[in-house]
Amino acid sequence: MKTSVILNRNFTIGEIDERIYGGFIEHLGRAVYGGIYQPDHPSADADGFRTDVLGLIRELGMPVTRYPGGNFVSGYNWEDGTGPRDRRPVRLDLAWKALEPNTFGTDEFIKWCRRAGTAPMMAVNLGTRGPAEAQQLVEYCNFPGGTELSERRRANGGREPYRVKLWCLGNEMDGPWQTGHRTADEYGRTALEAAKMMKWTDPSIEVIVCGSSNDAMPTFGYWEETVLEHTYDLADYLSIHRYFGNRCGQTPGYLAQPEEMAGFIRRAVACCDAAGAKKKSSKKIMLSFDEWNVWFHSNGREKESPEWTVGRPLLEDVYTMEDALLVGMLLSTLQNHADRVKIACLAQSVNVIAPIMTEKDGGAWRQTIFHPFALASKYGRGIALQSVVEGPCYDAEFRTDADAPPVLHRGIPYLHASFVHNTERSEVVIFAANRNLAEPMELEVRLGDFDAVSVIEQQTLHHSDLKAVNSAEREEVAPVAQQGAALENGTLKAVLLPASWNMLRISLRQPARADGSRQKQP
Ligand code: AHR
């Protein structure tokens, strides 16, 4: 089975915004309590942050982290998580039927972000609260000093403003499951007033308005049109969310889900541009795909942990090789929409549908999905390239769950890939999945005008058992260096194992300096 690709350095999609490799920490399950924050753990630092988790977060490379929710934020009083710990209230978290002790809050999160090498992306509560409290949180975080709120931050240890740039105006406000769910008109008006007051407080911030929780929502399209009608002039990004799962064990159809993600992105972009066209605006609203991942393994297991307890284990999906293959392709899908997707957050980062898991009394470990994420974030920087692909395709049926009607996916190329010109490193980096479960793929990539020098490496994620998982004891699924990829007259030739995800790095001749010398490879 052979697939051929043609690349041209001038045919580009756009510059990849590093923030597409974002993460997400919600007050949910063991993400905060027992995840990033566990003062009684042997690896905890003076602030109670688990340093083993910090190490793995840095290894993943997440330039931004969304916080504190998620559904949680729609019932959250941010003030509860500030000031002396012994005076912080314990509250009911209605979203996840848990107890919230508030021993970790905004100031701790900012500190944690600095240690983790990530920038905070804060969400405000537009469910049970409104624009005034959202404005007050911006003032608390970003105003230099001299007001009651900014001085409160300084008294709480934040001498300098936190300079939080990205603000989510609520979370999934179109969903009936949301605390304080609103109609599109109600939300649009509220979001506009919140954005106005927040930007008056700090004009340097960017705001993200809620789009649809997923494209199967009955209000999809109408919701975007209405919300953007209200907020177009002040909104910077529209948020979209989507989770995937293989509930009916249909692997070929499951592996065709990146095409579903791409379709959702195209439809959301169309909504943004239609709203802009109606307003005759030259401004473009970009997308923040701020929740995406595989989520299904833990469905129905909520009852296993007692309600109204702190850090009750929830959404602890253990990911398979097959899930890692999908996550790798979803990352390529985000790269392939670099012109419009400027932010994306893997939901989530620790213990809750996460690449990193922790043991209460043991260490932290990498799930299968950790690996494609870490490699894409490290090497998938630069310019996303267009490609012309010729190769075999397949058809597959897929049901999202047992009650859903089957959908036939036709003409799915076995190759799913993205191609990045990493200008900093002087490399072409290829992220490529072979969706054929039985046969290897001979991949040929004509690099044309790229002046390719050599193949640096091929890293392959593959396992004979698609249901193989990692655990605290054993990293069963991890990338392995593959030999054999080579350049022949400017064409890359490589073999992709059946059901594998791969990263191939090709070094390019360095552009000559004015004095004729060439820069050294890092
Ligand atoms: O990430 C888990 C949950 O999924 C989030 O709290 C919510 O926004 C979404 O429905």
What are the salient characteristics of this protein?
522 residues; alpha/beta; 8-stranded parallel β-sheet; 7-stranded antiparallel β-sheet; binds alpha-L-arabinofuranose
Element layout with pairings:
Blueprint: E1 2-6, E2 12-15, E3 23-24, H1 51-60, E4 64-67, E5 91-93, E6 98-100, H2 106-116, E7 119-124, H3 131-142, H4 148-155, E8 166-169, H5 184-201, E9 206-210, H6 222-231, E10 237-244, H7 251-254, H8 257-278, E11 286-294, H9 321-335, E12 341-346, E13 356-358, E14 364-366, H10 370-379, E15 383-385, E16 388-390, E17 393-398, E18 407-413, E19 415-422, E20 427-434, E21 441-446, E22 452-461, E23 480-481, E24 486-488, E25 491-496, E26 500-508
Parallel strand pairs: 1-21, 3-4, 4-7, 7-8, 8-9, 9-10, 10-11, 11-12
Antiparallel strand pairs: 1-16, 2-15, 5-6, 13-14, 15-19, 17-18, 19-20, 20-26, 21-25, 22-23, 22-26, 24-25
Task: Report strand order across the widest sheet.
Answer: 3-4-7-8-9-10-11-12
Principal-axis shape = globular
Which parts are unreliable, with pLDDT below 50 for 5 consecutive residues or more?
Answer: none
Tally of alpha and pi helices: 10
Range of strand content? 25-35%
Distance between the termini: 36 Å
Question: What characterizes the major β-sheet?
Answer: 8 strands, parallel
Structural class: alpha/beta
Tell me the number of strands.
26
Radius of gyration: 23 Å
> Which compounds are bound in this model?
alpha-L-arabinofuranose
Which percent bin holds the helix content? 10-25%
- Mean pLDDT equals 96
